[in-house]
């Protein structure tokens, strides 16, 4: 499975299913709807109904355990946060969901791993830079999955791969509110092609 997460911040419920179909057809099978989108839980439900048998659906910008529980009720299978909150991680894992907390420092990275995080979201990756990831990787346990998010896009996948990034969360380089399905599909195909070129398809 490609380590790519599509971040559809601002997606509307009425377009959610079509967007999910386009992403899955392009080869991106993990999709996140940030909770600061319009009626995000409805969008997640609509996506699960459309592609739940072919993709993993989750929520992003999840900040509280109450939000984790609400996302779980939709049938979503993973939680992404911009921060490292031990309670959110524990709640997510207790409910049997994948946990992708945001980290920026070694202290946060180790706290997230101690809490049971599935993978680490280096955020904002553009601020940490490839040098920051290289330095952090030197002390992380072997096998730790790190996704670069916020500053990673197809044009610099190779640089991040050289710095040991395992995958990426793709936001504005893939989707912005108001974009049509065709444009998102085209960007998704370009992202998958760039990923496969770097990591092997």
TrEMBL record:
PANTHER family: 2-DEHYDRO-3-DEOXY-6-PHOSPHOGALACTONATE ALDOLASE-RELATED, 2-KETO-3-DEOXY-6-PHOSPHOGLUCONATE ALDOLASE. Keywords: Carbohydrate metabolism, Lyase. This is 2-dehydro-3-deoxy-6-phosphogalactonate aldolase. PROSITE patterns: ALDOLASE_KDPG_KHG_2 (PS00160). Pfam families: Aldolase. Homotrimer. Belongs to the KHG/KDPG aldolase family. It comes from Pontivivens ytuae. It comes from the Bacteria. Pathway: Carbohydrate acid metabolism. InterPro entries: Aldlse_KDPG_KHG, Aldolase_TIM, KDPG/KHG_AS_2. GO terms for molecular function: lyase activity. The lineage of its organism: Bacteria, Pseudomonadati, Pseudomonadota, Alphaproteobacteria, Rhodobacterales. The keyword Lyase applies.
